[in-house]
Structure formats: C-alpha cells, structure tokens
C-alpha cells in the first residue's frame, strides 16, 4: 500500500503518526501564543466585555498584561459579591485607570458606606466624557 505509483497516497497509519496531537500542556501554549501578538487595542476591547474585577485579574498573566485593563473603554464595577466593592477599592481602581475617554461606566456602590465617595465618582465619569 505504499506510494508505488507516485500519486501521493499514504496509508492512514502513516498520516496518523506524523500528525500527533499536542499534549495537554502544549495546547495552552498555542492559545497563549495566539494572544501574544494581538495589539493592545484588541485586548482592551475584549476585556471591556468582562466585569472589571475579572479584567483586572488578567494583569497576573504576564508583564505585558499588567496594565492592559487600565485602558479599556468600559468599566463595570459590580463585584460578584452581593454588596459590591468598597469605596476605597473603587478609588484605587479609578486612580490606576488611564483611558481618557470611556464608552460606559457602570457602578453599583453600597450607598450607605460609599456616600462620601459619590461626588468623586461623578467627577471621574464626567472627566472621561461618559
């Protein structure tokens, strides 16, 4: 069954041995490799679809990702916890946020505890032309 006539035919066993699948550890390398060369603008757009809490956690992936979240066009500060983030944590996030213009800014504060911060958050949103 070898390629006696020169027509390129190879038995299925020969093909299967040449195209081995990657091991489980190698598969994630391929995915990481594909994200490595994306421009920051595309990464920021992808992160803008995530809650900000999750987008911020991507900063541990690599040195390059450390500040990508801070230029996303959207901030959604609604923690997965039932009461949301505390005012001082929100202020730290806003201090690290670098985008000059935002498309959207969503915030679900705990009104009783965060009342002293609300004016600052409104000024922040207005300064980004939300």
From TrEMBL:
Domain F-box: 32-82
CDD domains named in the record: F-box_AtFBL13-like
SUPFAM superfamilies with a match to the protein in the record: F-box domain (SSF81383)
Gene3D superfamilies named among the record's database cross-references: 1.20.1280.50
PROSITE patterns: FBOX
Domain of life: Eukaryota
Entries under Pfam families matching the protein: F-box
Family annotation (SMART domains): FBOX (SM00256)
Stretch list, region Disordered: 1-21
Alphabetical list of PANTHER family matching this protein: RNI-LIKE SUPERFAMILY PROTEIN
Protein name: F-box domain-containing protein
Organism encoding this protein: Brassica carinata (Ethiopian mustard)
